[in-house]
Amino acid sequence: MKGNKGRPARGCGYALPLPIAVLVCSAFFFLGYYISLSNNQEIVVENDVDRIHRQQLLENGETVQAAHGVTGDDLINVIPFQVLSWKPRALLFPGFANKQQCETIIKLAKTKLTPSGLALRKGETADATKDVRTSSGTFLSASHDKTGTLAWVEERMAKATMIPRAHGEAFNVLRYELGQKYNSHYDVFNPEEYGPQKSQRMASFLLYLSDVEEGGETMFPFENYQNMNMGYDYKQCIGLRVKPKQGDALLFYSMFPNGTFDAAALHGSCPVVAGEKWVATKWIRDSVER
Ligand SMILES: *[C@@H]1O[C@H](CO)[C@@H](O)[C@H](O)[C@H]1NC(C)=O
């Protein structure tokens, strides 16, 4: 721009002394340039290329990284899931663990099985409730597993739920033989029935360690708040039923995000009709206090 000394500059339309006009014009020019840079077409395209490339790498099973914080992961984990229900909040993770990992956990548990126990309500006796839960089981902690399998499962589960590992109880590995079952129940401990609690089982994670030929489904009789007014006997196998499949994992929440109990989280294990059912359960607490 060639200005005439002493005459008003016309660049911005108004009569301004030339140096000021140049300053104002260039200020707007650079502001415009800066704005166009921040929404720049080229940068968006570059991101798209990046994303497509990353997708291709992932599909080829190659290693991909994203910028991450100090406590984050180096890699992108692929954990497929299906929302089974919002009432209660339940997710299936198909192929969460592989066959060998499942068999390792069964082997660890096999030598230590004892009849499964039950948390008793005030006034209940072990003898009167012995038919409620007929499986055998054992508690296994990851720190006692030299193969590292349980630690691997815990780690992956913490990632899938974003609830730190320390909130989990030890694994309760269960075996259900022919006809064995677990009547429908809640995992939360209502203080009115069980007395004051330091923390609650807010979510439950089940890793199916075996296929079951027939029966043995995990059932949610009150799914979508159905069947709640029919005088349900806690034994009948109704509602949403999840068929155990070796390596699949099921996660459901017994509490709403606001901390109150979800009545739809009632669940049980249907009787095994043919075959045998092995499952590793982990209860996730709302605090590290027990
Ligand atoms: C907690 O959340 C549930 C589900 O959204 C809702 O039905 C219930 O009224 C809430 N309770 C309180 C005390 O906020």
UniProtKB/TrEMBL annotation:
Its EC number is 1.14.11.2. It catalyses: L-prolyl-[collagen] + 2-oxoglutarate + O2 = trans-4-hydroxy-L-prolyl-[collagen] + succinate + CO2. It is an enzyme of class 1 (oxidoreductase). GO terms for cellular component: endoplasmic reticulum; endoplasmic reticulum membrane. Pfam families: 2OG-FeII_Oxy_3 (PF13640). Its cofactor is L-ascorbate. It is a single-pass type II membrane protein. InterPro entries: Oxoglu/Fe-dep_dioxygenase_dom, P4HA-like, Pro_4_hyd_alph, Pro_4_hyd_alph_FE2OG_OXY. Keywords: Dioxygenase, Glycoprotein, Iron, Membrane, Metal-binding, Oxidoreductase, Signal-anchor, Transmembrane, Transmembrane helix. One of its GO terms (molecular function) is iron ion binding. It is found in: Endoplasmic reticulum membrane. The keyword Transmembrane helix applies. The keyword Ribonucleoprotein does not apply. It comes from the Eukaryota. Residues 166-286 form the Fe2OG dioxygenase domain. The chain crosses the membrane at residues 12-35. PANTHER family: PROLYL 4-HYDROXYLASE ALPHA SUBUNIT, TRANSMEMBRANE PROLYL 4-HYDROXYLASE. Belongs to the P4HA family. This is procollagen-proline 4-dioxygenase. It comes from Marchantia polymorpha. The lineage of its organism: Eukaryota, Viridiplantae, Streptophyta, Embryophyta, Marchantiophyta.
